[in-house]
Design goal:
Blueprint lengths: L4 H15 L8 H8 L3 H13 L3 E4 L5 E4 L8 H9 L21 H18 L3 H15 L7
Antiparallel strand pairs: 1-2
Helix pairs in contact: 1-2, 1-3, 1-4, 1-6, 4-5
């Protein structure tokens, strides 16, 4: 199972916004440039996060994007779920109606536990946690680059 480019870019953009938290909005072009993401694609990604209420947009010449709540209140699971939807590895984990064998299927139990572990891990990590780790790495390496 691999996360999509959309999930990786959403996470990178949200870390960028977290690193800028409390300093006003960041313009789309600035986030895109720092992350090497096309502005058009990034705008589509940020639309998912705005609809979920995790970011706000501010209009005007000093406008841009900013977090709608403190970074410690937004988990990595929130971000990924916003752009990916369910993280179930197979459809029957979320809906038993998709397969007539769900009641006797032993692998469905494994897939359910896998989804639970993924959600648990992503829910335990906040944007504040990631931003702190990024700052620590930047201090160690003398750089501010990151990849997800």
């Amino acid at each position: 199972m691999q996360l999509s480019t959309r999930a990786r870019y959403a996470t990178r953009a949200m870390i960028e916004l977290t690193l800028h938290y409390g300093k006003g909005p960041l313009q789309l072009k600035e986030i895109a440039k720092k992350q090497g993401i096309s502005e058009k694609y990034l705008e589509q990604v940020l639309t998912f996060l705005r609809k979920e209420g995790f970011i706000l947009t501010q209009k005007g010449n000093r406008g841009g994007y900013l977090l709608a709540m403190p970074p410690g209140e937004i988990t990595l699971y929130d971000v990924i779920r916003s752009v990916e939807g369910s993280l179930a590895p197979v459809a029957c984990v979320d809906s038993t109606a998709v397969c007539e064998k769900t009641e006797q299927c032993v692998t469905r139990d494994v897939w359910s536990r896998l989804k639970d572990k993924i959600v648990e891990e992503l829910s335990a990590t906040t944007l504040a946690d990631l931003a702190q780790k990024q700052e620590d790495k930047a201090a160690q390496n003398g750089t501010a680059s990151y990849q997800i």
